[in-house]
Amino acid sequence: MHSAFLVIAVGVLAIIAYHDVRTRRIPNVLSLAIATLALTRIALAEDAVAGWYTLGAATVTFAGTFAMFRCGIIGGGDAKMIPATALLIGYRDLVDFLFLMSLCGGALALATIAVENLEWPLKRFWRPACTPANAHTDQAPVPPKASTVPYGFAVATAGVITLMTAK
After folding, report:
1. Helix/strand/coil (H/E/C) assignment for every residue in 45-60
2. pLDDT at 59
3. pLDDT tens column, 90-138
4. Measured distance CA(13)–CA(71) in Å, rounded
5. CB of 9 within 8 A of CB of 37?
6. CB 69 within 8 Å of CB 142
7. How far apart are alpha carbons 69 and 158 in whole angstroms?
8. pLDDT band per the 50, 70, 90 thresholds, residue 55
C-alpha cells in the first residue's frame, strides 16, 4: 500500500480506537473516511479484478456484521467499521485481519472484565465518558447501563497490524 494511504489509514484508525474507548461510539464520518480511503485506493490500483473481489468480500462482511448487529451481538458502529476496514485491507488479507481482530477482541474483553471488576488506578481512563441519551436533544448525558467492550479498538488494532504486515 502506498505510504500516504498507510499514514492516513493508521491515523484515522487511531482516532477511531481512541474515540471508541472514550465514548463507546464510532462516528459514521470516521467509518465513511475509512471506506472512502479504501475506495480511492481500489480506484487507483492497477488490478481491477482484485478490486471487484475486495468489493465482494466487503459486501459479504457487511451482511454478516449487519446480521450480528440486528441480533444485538455487536454495535452499529462496529457493524459499519468492520466492512470499511475490510475494504481497506483487501480480500487477500481479509482472513488474517478477521482472525487477528478476534484475538484482539478477546484480549480486549478480558481486559474490560478485569478493569470493571478490579480497583485499578487506571480504571478512570477506561470508563466511557457519558454519552447523550438522545443526540438530537439537550437531555443530560447518561452513563452506559452495562459493561461494554470498545470493539472498535480491536478492529482498529487488527487493521493497523494487518496493513503494516500486508503482503
Report:
1. CCCHHHHHHHHHHHHH
2. 96
3. 999 999 999 999 999 999 999 888 877 776 665 555 555 554 444 454 4
4. 26
5. yes
6. no
7. 20
8. very high
SS3 (DSSP) at 79: helix
Residue 158 class from Cβ within 10 Å (0-12 exposed, 13-18 middle, 19+ buried)? Answer: buried
Q: What gap in Å lies between CA 150 and CA 17, rounded to an integer?
A: 8
Query: What type of residue sits at position 55?
Result: L
Predicted structure pTM score: 0.80
The type of residue at 127 is: R
Q: Which residues contact 39 (CB under 8 A, 6 or more apart)?
A: 87
DSSP symbol at 145: S
Residue 54 belongs to what domain range?
3-165
* Structural domains in the chain (count): 1
